[in-house]
Protein: Glutaredoxin domain-containing protein
Amino acid sequence: MVTVYGRSNCAQCTATTRTLDIKDVDHVYLDVEQYPEVCDYLRSLGHQQLPVVIAGPAHWSGFRPDLIVALARKADSIN
Structure:
């Protein structure tokens, strides 16, 4: 499962979730404004910007279409 942590009015968050949708990658979106306690966890992973994408052991921050494409390819090879 892929989890995207973002917030409203975040262009990179919107671009990330839109690209995940286009690539048919199942994901859950959590707004850090509704779950502020998660911010310390994300910082502990070394992230200082949103969105933060966590996909199993892999995680990254910012809009990374290259990593989303790689994630979609990996999901396709499993299915």
